[in-house]
């Protein structure tokens, strides 16, 4: 076939399954958009509207005024932020070393898929099952607590540890924070080019110089972004905290639950104002994560 014949040939029509607004591929994502609309967008919009209304439905800023005049509610934000920071930093540090260990190739080859599979499961393990698991493990009569007391003579509760406390909840959050950090950092570590390390070695640099001048600067946006994502993940957690501590720990998600669903402290519009503040904190954290991730991906393409 000549070039002229090819140029004169009629264009191939696109099939319905390969393009167009209403293609088969587009229909495949319709359930996702419906789910996001019903369970994310619409509830968030209703929450934001309710935060600026009183019980009669009239526009008001009284909910935020009451929120600012309630020291217990403001303290709940501060406690939630501290728990989120502690679990995010702890999860980031431990998760980084685990991710580096499985990517470095020093460990047996079968260990990486095992760690990644466990991380995928553990990062989504939360709520009542996770709370029960920690009570059964490090509760006052938990398995580890009893073994340490009977075999080694160490009573962790006599030394000040309490599962139903700040550090107890932080330890529980680490169970899903560390695996989440591993899942996020492994692709970033995989993107580190071997040529960079070889070039550093050719120029006389040591492992310290490589991480000081190459590894850490390249990975820093990914590490910081992942840490912010862990912060947002812990800040919005409610089921694990409520199942583990009940109302003994004054965190904002439990206060929100009490205002919306409680019998004594029932004030839904004040709860909406609490949730609005959480949305602001979470949006700032996720926005910074997206920005840092985009900076990190420039080096790892």
TrEMBL record:
Family statement drawn from the similarity comment of this UniProt entry: Belongs to the binding-protein-dependent transport system permease family. CysTW subfamily.
CDD domains found in the cross-reference section: TM_PBP2
Protein name: Spermidine/putrescine transport system permease protein
Organism annotation: Labrys wisconsinensis
Record-annotated ABC transmembrane type-1 domain positions: 77-291
Residues annotated as transmembrane: 20-42, 83-107, 127-148, 160-189, 209-232, 239-258, 270-292
Alphabetic keyword roster: Cell membrane, Membrane, Transmembrane, Transmembrane helix, Transport
Major subcellular site: membrane
Bilayer topology annotation: Multi-pass membrane protein
Subcellular location: Cell membrane
């Amino acid at each position: 076939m000549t070039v002229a014949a090819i140029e004169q040939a009629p264009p191939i029509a696109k099939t319905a399954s390969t393009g167009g607004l209403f293609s088969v591929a587009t229909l495949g994502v319709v359930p996702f958009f419906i789910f996001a609309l019903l369970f994310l967008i619409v509830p968030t919009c209703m929450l934001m509207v309710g935060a600026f209304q009183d019980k009669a439905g009239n526009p008001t800023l009284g909910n935020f005024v009451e929120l600012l005049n309630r020291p217990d509610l403001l303290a709940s934000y501060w406690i939630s932020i501290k728990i989120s920071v502690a679990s995010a930093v702890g999860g980031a540090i431990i998760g980084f070393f685990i991710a580096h260990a499985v990517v470095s190739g020093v460990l047996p080859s079968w260990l990486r898929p095992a760690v990644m599979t466990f991380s995928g499961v553990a990062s989504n393990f939360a709520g009542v099952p996770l709370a029960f698991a920690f009570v059964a493990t490090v509760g006052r009569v938990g398995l580890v607590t009893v073994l340490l007391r009977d075999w080694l003579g160490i009573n962790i509760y006599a030394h000040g540890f309490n599962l139903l406390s700040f550090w107890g909840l932080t330890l529980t959050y680490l169970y899903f924070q560390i695996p989440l950090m591993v899942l996020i950092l492994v692709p970033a570590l995989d993107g580190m080019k071997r040529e960079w390390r070889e070039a550093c070695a050719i120029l006389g640099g040591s492992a310290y110089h490589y991480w000081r001048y190459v590894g850490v600067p390249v990975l820093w946006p990914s590490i910081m972004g992942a840490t912010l994502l862990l912060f947002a993940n812990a800040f919005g957690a409610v089921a694990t905290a409520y199942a583990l501590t009940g109302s003994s720990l004054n965190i904002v998600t439990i206060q929100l639950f009490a205002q919306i669903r409680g019998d004594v402290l029932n004030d839904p519009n004040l709860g909406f104002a609490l949730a609005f503040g959480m949305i602001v904190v979470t949006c700032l954290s996720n926005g910074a994560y997206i920005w840092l991730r985009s900076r990190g991906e420039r080096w790892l393409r």
